[in-house]
Amino acid sequence: MSGPRICLIGFGEVGQILAADLAGVGELSAYDILFARPDSIPARALGRHKVRAGADAGDAAKGADLVLSAVTAASDLDAAGSVLAGLKPGAIYVDFNSASPGMKQKAARIVEQAGGRYVEAAVMSPFPPRRLATAMLLGGPHANAFLALAQSLGFTGARFFSDAVGPASATKMCRSVMIKGIEALLTESLLAARRYGVEQTVLDSLGDLLPVGDWEKLARYMISRSLEHGTRRAEEMREVANTVSEAGIAPLMSTAAAERQDWAAGHKSALGESDLGAMLDTILNDIETAPRLLRKEHA
Fold it and tell me: Which domains does the chain have, with CATH numbers?
């Protein structure tokens, strides 16, 4: 097959989108630590995509011209180190992971010392629905070299941002202070407001101060993102906290948002509710039920 040989490290939501959208442009290989568990989502997804599953990350990366890393924030350095056995000299390693500038710089050193060319890619909006066309900032000394290839592959939202590794990730992380923080604030605010029976008045007052449109629709969407992806978001917010700390500022809000995002992930049962009020009621019912269940278990 003509075209670049592409390796995907991480086969979660983003990895699977990459596999689907890059099918046919080159030879694809992939590795995810969950491939070892046949019942896992990444392992089950393999059958739906035309990719060669590597025995390990190094095997998946063997001979690849382009390695795309899309793993959880805490696994950023492990992912970079895992491909070294198969990384060919001059291969481009693109780091999509939500990590602090300091961690990205460490990952860059790992890849560069092995002869690869590291590019940081700060993804600036949810990967779905725009998929490859999602807005992203490219950073590092090889960012411009990757840009022409990226756009030919369909990454039309990518743009050069900096010759240095770090500024692109700093931009994304500082944005996340706001976005993931607002999700956490809306969750906490509206759960309490629902308990007091005043959530609609709170939403109306937000519309007066911040006219973003339908606050009820926005609140349901943002809270649902925390419920569905809270664990991953909490991990990212811990990296955000590291980013803020690296700037010499105490990450009070980022740390608190990480805790609320982690907490939200435990209430996925509310995701089935299309109405904001019903979603809040389901979470509140979970909160009320949990202590009773604990008391029964310890009785």
Answer: 5-165 (3.40.50.720), 173-298 (1.10.1040.10)
